[in-house]
Design goal:
The mean pLDDT is 88. The chain is an alpha/beta fold. 40% of the residues lie in helices and 21% in strands. The chain has a 5-stranded parallel beta sheet with strand order 3-2-1-4-5, sandwiched between helices. The protein binds adenosine monophosphate (AMP). Adenosine monophosphate (AMP) binds next to strand 2, strand 4 and helix 6. It is found in: Cytoplasm.
């Protein structure tokens, strides 16, 4: 069965273009719908949830910046309609799974740095997304920066 709806998770770095291109090839060959998601991690989460100050303004700025970057990224792929771009607050694994389920996606595509050694112990988003995923997951190998 060809895939019908592919969800691409991007961290908005330049590294994500190969992930995007791979997902696009797959979408063309399966005639699948494509959706894009970026998760904005709340600052309190990044600081361990124990910050004694109001972060709401900073979080709004963080969200606005992510929206601009998402727009810049997605504008290179005109076939990705605005309705299929999602910007969500939360924890990447949880939100990517939730969105995949909610949108009826049958494949999630993420980038993978192919970590080993200590970096592997620290974990990766690709690993995280794989565990408990509601559908297939494709990890596109990312090249190390030169
Ligand atoms: P990482 O393990 O953090 O180096 O990320 C590997 C891949 O996970 C990226 O190439 C993206 O496909 C995905 N990813 C990481 N962070 C996010 C995020 N905040 N939102 C959506 N996808 C992400």
């Amino acid at each position: 069965m060809p895939y019908q709806h592919i969800l691409i998770a991007i961290d908005l770095s330049e590294e994500c273009h190969p992930v995007m291109l791979r997902a696009q090839e797959l979408a063309i060959s399966s005639q699948a719908k494509l959706s894009l998601v970026h998760i904005v991690e709340p600052m309190a989460m990044a600081f361990g949830g124990d910050v004694p100050m109001d972060l709401s303004m900073l979080q709004q700025q963080q969200f606005d910046q992510a929206r601009e970057r998402m727009h810049g990224f997605a504008s290179r792929y005109p076939q990705l309609s605005v309705d299929n771009r999602h910007l969500v607050y939360g924890q990447p694994r949880q939100e990517i799974h939730r969105l995949a389920q909610e949108q009826g996606c049958d494949l999630i595509v993420v980038g993978s740095h192919g970590r080993h050694g200590l970096a592997l112990l620290l974990g990766s988003t690709a690993n995280d997304v794989l565990h408990g995923a509601p559908c297939d997951v494709l990890a596109v190998r990312l090249k190390k920066p030169e």
